[in-house]
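User: Teach me something about this protein's shape.
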Amino acid sequence: MKLINSLLLSLVTSLFIYSPAIATDSLESQVIIQEKTILYVNINTADIEMLADLLVGVGEKKAQAIINHREQVGLFTTADDLLAVKGIGPSILEKNRPAILVDTVQKTDS
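Assistant: First, the predicted structure itself:
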């Protein structure tokens, strides 16, 4: 009889472990984990540290190439303009596209 009671207790306990409330909590946790905060990088004004820190696959060398390009050629008008920078290919561009901001408005001193 003790064996049957023990088995029933185990069965009831296991049913509570797989209850829908626990499954819902698990799904909510998954949603929270998947949410991200995106930091935008204005490729026309960002310095070398910001470019290297916030763009995936961009270190200081590529960040300097971005800065050199915008100083020599002019401001970027679209994110796709980064493809003209040596070392920036389609893969790096696509990984960073959601974070790239292209603001071409020049600030003036009033």
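Now, about its shape. Confidence is low (pLDDT under 50) at residues 11-26. The helical segments are 2-17, 20-34, 48-54, 60-73, 90-96. If you'd like, I can walk through any region in more detail.
User: That's plenty for now, thanks!
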